[in-house]
Amino acid sequence: MLSHPRALVVCAFLAVTVAGCAGGPAPVASGVTLGTMPSQPSPSSSVVPPVDEVTAPHVLGDVEVRSASPAELDVAPVDQPVRLEVAGLDIDMPVVRVGVDETGGMVIPEGALTAGWYEFGPAPGDDAGNAVVAAHVDNAQGLGPFARLLDVEVGERVDVTTESGATIAYEVTDVEQTNKDEVDLTAVFEPDGPPSLVMVTCGGDWQANIGHYADNVIVTAIPVDDVP
Fold it and tell me: How far apart are CA 64 and CA 211, in angstroms?
């Protein structure tokens, strides 16, 4: 089990960009993109180098400012996610922890076969907040597993396996495809409130002029207690 600083409160949510799905459309890709979103990296965390050269050219507006007093920061062990499965869609992906690049963008694992968990937010299994997992919709070889997220049905089960071997089961409650300029990314990265798993990829039309898809596909799921 790895541990790292988990910021309970931060002086500000930074405007960061998710470089999701900037690799170009696959031959039959319908498209999907993540726009900009607030992050909450801890003051002591190191910057993660980017894996993609192209990032979405958007900046989030002003957001709530909170205290960054060291007394209000917590260091807690994190049982990080290592695998995500949606049996009904034949999705079975490794998950790695990711942070932000030097431009403030959330790092997305290279290719489309691995998902990234945003390590500066809640983790799957935490008591509150959204655990965010994102992946490219495609790459030069074709569509990735998250391309099927748009087909997921409300009530579908999602299983997340953690580094300790625990399984956390979720049930899908919401599926949306929205123009990335209209997505409330502060809500996507909500650090408080009921625990949820938020899976994000890209969708809509490919915009060749900026190298991104037009939309975000966002699937929200809540924990269930029926793990055998």
Answer: 31
Q: Which two tokens stand for residue 208?
A: 């060749």
How is 114-182 classified by DSSP, letter by letter?
Answer: -EEEETTS--TT-SSSEEEEE--SEETTEE-GGGGGGG--TT-EEEEEETTS-EEEEEEEEEEEEEGGG
CATH topology of domain 2-223: Sortase; Chain: A; (2.40.260)
Q: Say if CB 99 and CB 49 are below 8 A apart.
A: no
Please give the pLDDT value at position 3. 33
pTM of the model: 0.72
Instruction: Please give the Cα distance from 189 to 216 (Å, whole number).
Output: 14
Contacts of 57 (CB under 8 A, 6+ apart): 17, 210
Of 2-6, 143-147, 217-221, the poorest mean pLDDT is in 2-6
Q: Name which of 139, 141, 133, 100 is nearest 116 in CA terms.
A: 133
**Does residue 48 sit in helix, strand or coil?**
coil
Question: Which sequence spans correspond to the domains of the chain?
Answer: 2-223
